[in-house]
Specification:
It is found in: Cell projection, Cilium. Helices cover 31% and strands 29% of the residues. The protein is α+β, with helices and mostly antiparallel strands and 1185 residues long. It has six domains: 283 residues, YVTN repeat-like/Quinoprotein amine dehydrogenase (Methylamine Dehydrogenase, Chain H, 7 Propeller); 79 residues, Beta Barrel (Thrombin, subunit H); 59 residues, no CATH class; 112 residues, no CATH class; 180 residues, Serine Threonine Protein Phosphatase 5, Tetratricopeptide repeat; 123 residues, no CATH class. The longest helix is centred in the last third of the chain and has 32 residues. The protein is elongated and about 180 Å long. The chain starts with a strand and ends in a 21-residue tail after the last helix.
Length: 1185
């Protein structure tokens, strides 16, 4: 570090003879103005050349202080005339205020920009918003003042040796006492610097505590300022630059320096002298540093050494507490030269940044270079090289001054390479002391470096020429011009970095250099980083090495290219290296390159090709694969052809959709068809479905053609194709049918399936289209279609909450378990909800299903099914009758007549066989019988039922009504009983049965026939044809016109005459006396008897799988009829009333309206002659489209 005078001015008074003493000066914040107080004048200079910008003459006394505001908008001047003037940056006075004494010093607050003005014994604060300036008294003469960096405290130095701390309102908060008068104070960060008349510099905290030790600076300083971390002092005897700890660096002698100030923007120092001289100095900072690989050591604050790791950026500071003159670093050693000694440090650990003092060597002599080796230190001065720190010192004298020293190793020996001013290169071995000249260059050596393998030496001379020599032969390899510094790459032997002329050049081997702009000099090159010294700082620059990699690739030097690429290149560079190596079949380098770029595709390709090549695959085939991957398809096809692998070339062109070229490698026949098929695939992918379909058809692939037509909606093409194909092409027709179905052409697809005879598929399509009528028709015509029709219909009905229809459909589909599960749930729900009529209807449906099932069975299975039919039919009749009984008991009003209710309850008791079905209450039956018998005056029957009720547990809510009924019944025991009136009449024997007898006459054993509307006994007598008469013959005989009756022509006037016609009476078996031993009570009719019967009085019940039952109505005026569906018997009048009121049969719920045509009924009915109704789903009106 040194100072150079930049300019100097001698300031005179107006008479040009007497000089004006310069007491104060300051710089503007931007460094563009230098304000000087000389005599009574305020002068503004341009600090660049010392020209006077403005002379301000407003004071009438000597100007003692000037200060510039931190905002750069104003400055202040204070004079012995006791006035303070505020000036703008344009040198215009805007305000003036006064003290009672001469102004001694001024200081602006760095935060609030308030001005502190100090007179001899008081001080004040001023700002733009203060109208009246308030003064604060001080006990002592004020000499100096300074604000703390945070603007909270004002420190005032007094001639009494005291330093007082004041807050922003002027109150004293701290005081420091010195032994001598305090002349200057300043802040370095939050440390207070104090100089006194004893030539000492002291350091204090804000709290008034002394921190560092006091320093004797050799002068009584009256001014103190900060230059970065350095301290500027001026006073009696001159001025000096000190370190942050007060160690002198530079001392300049002057008679008396009143003020010293640094420029904020330039390394300039302004010095104000008593003799009227104004000096401006240029401060030149010399760089003291050392570099070994990525560790850079440099001087900071003149007394500290910073070791920086250029790769990681980590730093460590070593405080030397003295001026650092030289630094040397090598491997684990660090040497620092101080004014009186050399301190050697060693690295604590290999990778760490901790350095410990190893030894201290006394050394006062100056040197131009300090050199450190692994175990010694050397000083270089002019032509002499000396080793210090050894027991036996060594020295070497060179023929010319030494310009550059490089520590390296040659042949496993640590050596020094010396570059001399006469152009010679010397080699010195410190351990052995041997020295010799190895090269002679044309000009003075500026710098040199040796390659990582020690095979090349580069030398830069004063002519800015770099020459590269081979070692140890010394042969010149090449020359580079306009070079100021050079460095070999420490990781790669082929890379050389050169700087000069504002550019950085990276040279690989003998190839052309790659350049980029660079300000500074290259001092190190490691991997992909260049260490560059720019001004006083070391910068790490990442340099691209792509050009070197590309140069090696162009010359097919893949190993060298890989070595350079490992230092750091982009992913695209790795890709280029990998591809180039792969094309030359350098698999190892290619694999490593693609691993770096993480290209899984090429890595898989390399593994595959390597395996095939090792297995004996021809080189041309492997090369062709590589060329194909690189897009050189023609060359790849030629390579395949040369290896007799035309199939590979064919696949290549087909994959590329280059079918015209592919035909060059294919023959006729199957190969051409395969090519056509692949071409069709391509047309399909490029959205040309029509062309693709035609190509598939041309290749004979009807399946793919049909699928493509369906996927793209080409219905017209599919329909046309279906018409062209004949029935013999069944497989092709099936493909077309499937495609038509996929395309939504269900009707056409069904026609094609029908041509193929696949009725199951036709039924499925009908179901899919919602054409249930056609589906049911197919199910009836083709038994194999039943499941495909009825099962979807069952699911549909279940989704629509039509569970009865769903149960029927499950049964028809053969899903017996599902049908039974649905039936069980429906019956259980109906019984739980007391819908006994529905429960009866459900049992009737199940009975009908068992009857239908029995028709297709035989043997035991058939009998089992018939037993189930009889069981469910009996339950259906019970629940049907119990519905009115339950309503009579539980509802307050009943629309049924007492006779009807009594008949229903009696009918249920007759049907019960053991335990009653779920939901049927014996209490309700007995209570209903008792109530209706009481109502009909059948007191005996009523008492009988009440006695049975008393044997049961009576529900609480019926307790009172039952007790009342018992009382009423007992009270009417004396009245006339009419039990005979409620007893059923047997029309076979014309006798009454007991009141509770409803099944069979106890006298003649004739089965009583009941109407399922009112449950009363019908006047029907069962008969059967005599043996030998078939049922068909019996039907014919009954349908014939009966023989005319013989009429008596005699006039009997009004007399009542009983005529017995023996021929007729004897032929009427219905009037014959009943024999007691008859078991069945069935009348047997001969042919003549059958012919005598009137068809209107005969009712025939026809049930599937059962023999017809013949009944004769003994009261023809009350005609009876049988339901056409369930074949149960009713009075015709009652049946017709039920049809009108309910619209269906009261038992089986068969609708009243029937289609005229039996075929039409069969077509519309899902179950075809079963008890199910025609399905009325919305799908009945769906079209095939």
């Amino acid at each position: 570090m040194r100072t150079l005078p930049k300019w100097v001015n001698k300031i005179h008074e107006a008479d040009k003879i007497e000089f004006s003493s310069v007491h104060t000066l300051c710089f503007s914040p931007d460094g563009s103005q230098l304000v000087v107080g000389a005599g009574e004048k305020v002068m503004v200079y341009d600090p660049r050349d010392g020209s006077l910008l403005q002379l301000l003459q407003a004071h009438k006394g000597a100007v003692h202080a000037v200060a510039y505001c931190g905002d750069g908008k104003k400055f202040a001047s204070g004079s012995a005339d006791r006035n303070v003037i505020i000036w703008t940056s344009k040198m215009e006075g805007i305000l003036k205020y006064s003290h009672s004494e001469a102004i001694q010093c001024l200081a602006y607050n760095p935060v609030t920009f308030h001005l502190a003005s100090c007179a001899i014994s008081d001080f004040a604060f001023w700002s733009m918003d203060i109208k009246a300036v308030q003064k604060h008294k001080v006990s002592g003469r004020i000499t100096s003042c300074a604000w703390s960096p945070n603007g909270q405290y004002l420190v005032i130095g007094l001639a009494s040796g005291a330093v007082t701390f004041r807050d922003k309102v002027g109150n004293e908060i701290q005081r420091i006492l010195r032994e001598a008068a305090v002349w200057a104070v300043a802040f370095s960060k939050m440390t207070l610097l104090v100089t006194d008349w004893n030539e000492t510099l002291s350091f204090y905290t804000i709290q008034g505590q002394q921190t560092l030790k006091e320093r004797n600076i050799g002068m009584a300083a009256v001014s103190i300022m900060l230059l970065d971390s350095l301290i500027l002092v001026g006073g009696v005897g001159g001025w000096a630059i000190l370190t942050a700890e007060g160690v002198p660096i530079i001392t300049t002698s002057q008679d008396w320096v009143w003020a010293i100030a640094p420029s904020p923007s330039f390394n300039n120092i302004a010095v104000a002298c008593q003799d009227g001289t104004l000096w401006c100095y240029q401060v030149v900072f010399s760089t003291v540093h050392g570099l070994y690989r990525e560790r850079y050591a440099y001087r900071e604050n003149m007394t500290d050494v910073i070791i920086q790791h250029l790769t990681t950026g980590n730093k460590v500071r070593i405080k030397c507490h003295d001026r650092v003159q030289k630094i040397a670093i090598y491997k684990h050693r660090l040497a620092v030269q101080l004014p009186e000694r050399v301190v050697v440090y060693e690295q604590g650990d290999v990778e760490g940044m901790l350095y410990r003092v190893r030894e201290k060597l006394p050394q006062k002599s100056e040197c131009s270079l300090l050199v450190a080796t692994s175990d010694s230190l050397l000083l270089c001065q002019d032509t002499k090289l000396s080793m210090i720190g050894r027991q036996i010192p060594k020295s070497w004298s060179m023929p010319a001054p030494i310009r550059y020293v490089k520590v390296t190793s040659l042949r496993f020996e640590e050596v020094l390479l010396l570059g001399l001013m006469n152009g010679e290169i010397w080699q010195v071995e410190p351990n052995s002391g041997v020295s010799m000249m190895i090269l002679q260059t044309p000009a003075s050596v500026r710098c040199l470096d040796v390659s990582a393998s020690r095979g090349c030496l580069s030398v830069v001379d004063e002519a800015s020429t770099c020459r590269v020599y081979s070692l140890p032969s010394g042969e010149l390899q090449y020359t580079e011009e306009n070079v100021s510094s050079v460095s070999w790459n420490s990781w790669c032997d082929e890379l050389l970095s050169l700087s000069g002329g504002g550019t950085l050049s990276i040279k690989a081997g003998h190839f052309t250099s790659a350049t980029q702009p660079l300000i500074g000099s290259v001092v190190g090159f490691q991997g992909g980083r260049v260490f560059c010294l720019q001004a006083n700082s070391m910068q790490t620059i990442n340099v691209p090495l792509s050009h070197a990699v590309h140069q090696y690739i162009e010359h097919k030097l893949f190993n060298e290219a890989y070595a350079v690429a490992c230092l750091g290149v982009t992913s695209s560079d790795w890709e280029r290296l990998g591809v180039a190596a792969l094309e030359e079949m350098s698999f190892e380098v290619a694999r490593k390159a693609f691993q770096r770029s993480e290209n899984i595709t090429f890595l898989s390709l390399i593994d595959n090709l390597q395996e095939r090549f090792d297995a004996g695959e021809k080189r041309d085939v492997i090369h062709g694969e590589i060329l194909a991957y690189r897009g050189r398809y023609t060359d790849a096809a030629r390579a395949f052809h040369s290896a007799d692998r035309d199939d590979r070339a064919l696949n290549l062109y087909v994959d590329l959709r280059m079918f015209n070229k592919a035909q060059e490698y294919v023959g006729e026949g199957d190969g051409l068809a395969a090519l056509t098929r692949r071409r069709a695939e391509w047309a399909r992918h490029v959205n040309e479905p029509r062309a693709a379909a035609e190509m598939y058809l041309a290749a004979g692939d009807v399946k793919r053609a049909a699928q493509l037509m369906a996927e793209t909606g080409r219905r017209d093409m599919l329909i046309e194709l279906a018409r062209k194909l004949d029935k013999g092409s069944s497989e092709s027709l099936r493909y077309v049918a499937e495609a038509l179905e996929q395309a939504g052409e269900l009707a056409t697809s069904a026609d094609v399936y029908q041509r193929l005879g696949d009725y199951t598929k036709v039924a499925q399509l009908a179901v899919a289209a919602g054409e249930w009528s056609r589906a049911f028709s197919l199910a009836r015509e083709q038994s194999e279609c039943k499941r495909d029709v009825y099962l979807p219909y069952a699911h549909k009905m279940a989704q629509e909450n039509k569970f009865i229809e769903a149960q029927k459909a499950y049964h028809m589909a053969g899903e017996t378990a599902t049908a039974m599960r649905v039936f069980t749930i429906l019956v259980g729900n109906a019984v739980t909800e007391e819908r006994f009529s529905d429960a009866g209807y459900l049992h009737h449906l199940l009975a009908s299903q068992f009857l239908d099932t029995a028709s297709s069975l035989s043997g035991k299975e058939r009998q089992k099914s018939l037993n189930q039919y009889e069981y469910n039919e009996r339950h259906a009749r019970i629940y049907h009758a119990y519905d009115s009984v339950h309503k009579c008991v539980h509802e307050p009003f009943s629309l049924s007549q007492p006779e009807t209710l009594l008949n229903a309850a009696r009918y249920i008791l007759a049907l019960l066989d053991g335990e009653a079905p779920p939901g049927v209450s014996m209490f309700c039956l007995y209570l209903c019988l008792a109530k209706q018998a009481k109502a009909l005056s059948a007191h005996g029957l009523a008492r009988q039922m009440l006695d049975k009720i008393l044997g049961l547990q009576i529900p609480q809510k019926f307790q009172e009504s039952v007790e009342l009924l018992i009382l009423k019944t007992r009270a009417s025991s004396g009245s006339e009983a009419r039990d005979d009136e409620v007893a059923p009449l047997c029309w076979r024997c014309r006798r009454h049965a007991p009141p509770l007898c409803a099944a069979r006459c106890p006298h003649c054993h004739h089965s009583l026939v009941h109407s399922l509307a009112t449950h009363e006994v019908l006047p029907l007598v069962q008969f059967k044809p005599a043996e030998g008469i078939t049922h068909e013959e019996a039907f014919d005989l009954i349908e014939r016109t009966p023989l005319p009756e013989v009429k008596d022509e005699q006039n009997t006037s009004d007399a009542e005459i009983l005529r017995i016609d023996h021929e007729i009476d004897s032929n009427d078996p219905f009037l014959d006396k009943v024999e007691e031993e008859e078991d069945e009570g069935v009348v047997v009719c001969s042919r003549g008897n059958l012919m005598q019967l009137s068809p209107a009085s005969v009712v025939i019940v026809k049930r599937n799988l059962f023999q017809p039952l013949y009944f004769r109505n003994m009261l023809p005026e009350l005609p009876a009829t049988a339901c056409s569906n369930c074949q149960n018997l009713f009075y015709l009048e009652d049946y017709e009333i039920q049809l009108v009121v309910k619209g269906h049969c009261p038992f089986c719920r068969h609708p009243a309206e029937h289609l005229k045509n039996e075929d039409d009924d069969a077509e519309d009915s899902m179950l075809n002659d079963s008890t199910a109704s025609t399905p009325g789903s919305p799908g009945d009106h769906h079209s095939w489209r």
